[in-house]
Amino acid sequence: MDWIYLIRLWLFTIIYGPIIFLIKIFLETSNGSNLFSNMQFYVLAFVLGGLFSIPTFVFAAVFFIFLENHNLKRNFIKAALTLTFIAGIFATLRIINGSVAMDIALSYSIAALIVGISFRLKSIKN
């Protein structure tokens, strides 16, 4: 099993999600605010994103074991894991709710898609 792929998918989604959200805010605001002035938000989003994503990561790890044991194609496993993370993002933000929950969910989902496509899932046969 390629646990590195799963950990990368989880970690880089947490890293890139807030960045995509900040870029979206920067592009939508016309008051000339600096993109890098929101570093406190980024740190908070990274920490909270990590904490709130633990249940999704645990579910994805169990699902990953299930998929690997059924000898499915790597592309199918990558797609299933990416969709699992996206579903977890929306479920978590649905529970949390808030005025920008959908924007945050879309930002993290875009990050998960980019990361899921970018990294390679290695097939490890014993």
From TrEMBL:
The chain crosses the membrane at residues 7-27, 39-67, 79-96, 102-121. Keywords: Membrane, Transmembrane, Transmembrane helix. This is Uncharacterized protein. It comes from Flavobacterium artemisiae.
